[in-house]
Amino acid sequence: MTKHRTATRKVWLGERLKLLEAEKELTRRSDELAQRRQALPWVRVDKEYRFDTDEGSASLADLFQGRSQLLVYHFMFGPDYAAGCPSCSSIADGFNGIVVHLEHHDVAFTVLSRAPLAKLQTYKRRMGWTFPWASSLGSDFNLDFNISFSAKGASYTTTGARRGGK
C-alpha cells in the first residue's frame, strides 16, 4: 500500500503553483546555460581523427557529409559493454525522425561510441535504428573532446562541431 500523502485541492494548488515557479526558474537557468554553451569559442581541429562507419573508414571531415555543421551525439557504449547505455538507448529511439530535419538545415548527424563497429551494428539492428553510428575505437577523439572517462575523470557530453564560415 502506498503511503503517499493526500491533501485538499487548495493545498495541492498552492504547492503546485510553488512548484511551477521553481520549474520556470529551472527553464530560465537552462536557457541561460544553452546560451553560454553556444557562446563557447570555437577551436580549430588540426588532428586527423578516423572513425569506423557503415561505409568504411571516415575522417571527421567525412562525417560532415558536405554539410557546414555536424551534430555528434556521444552514446555511452564502451568496447567491453554487452549493450548500450539504457538512457542513451531511450534518447536514441527518437533519432531516426530528426535526421532528415537536421539535414534540411545543413546539419549532418552521427552517433559516436567507443565500441567496435560490429557490436554497434548488431545493437543498432536489434533496436531498429537507421541513423548513422560510428565507432571511435582506437581514436583519441573521445578523450580530446572530453566525452569519455579518463584517469583524470573527464565527463561525457554531447558535442557539436561546425565547419566552414557558416
Can you offer a commentary on this structure?
Helix content is 39%, strand content 17%. It is an alpha/beta fold and 166 residues long. The protein has helices at 9-38, 60-63, 86-92, 95-103, 117-127, 141-144; strands at 50-53, 56-59, 69-74, 107-113, 133-135, 159-162. Mean pLDDT is 89; it is low at 153-166. The radius of gyration is 20 Å and the shape is extended. The chain has 6 helices and 6 strands; from the N terminus they run H-E-E-H-E-H-H-E-H-E-H-E. The N and C termini lie far apart (59 Å). It has a 4-stranded mixed sheet. A two-stranded antiparallel sheet has the order 1-2. Strand 1 (50-53) and strand 2 (56-59) form a beta hairpin.
Structural features:
extended, 6 strands, 166 residues, two-stranded antiparallel ribbon, 17% strand, alpha/beta, 4-stranded mixed β-sheet, disordered C terminus
Chart the SSEs and their pairings.
Blueprint: H1 9-38, E1 50-53, E2 56-59, H2 60-63, E3 69-74, H3 86-92, H4 95-103, E4 107-113, H5 117-127, E5 133-135, H6 141-144, E6 159-162
Parallel strand pairs: 3-4, 4-5
Antiparallel strand pairs: 1-2, 3-6
Q: Would you count the extended β strands for me?
A: 6
Low-confidence stretches: 153-166
Bin the helical content: 25-40%
What sort of overall outline do the alpha carbons produce when their principal axes are compared?
extended
Q: What's the pLDDT, averaged over the residues?
A: 89
Secondary-structure element string = HEEHEHHEHEHE
Alpha-beta content class: alpha/beta
Gap from first CA to last CA: 59 Å
Largest sheet: 4 strands, mixed
Radius of gyration: 20 Å
Number of helices: 6
Strand content: 15-25%
Strand order, sheet with most strands = 5-4-3-6
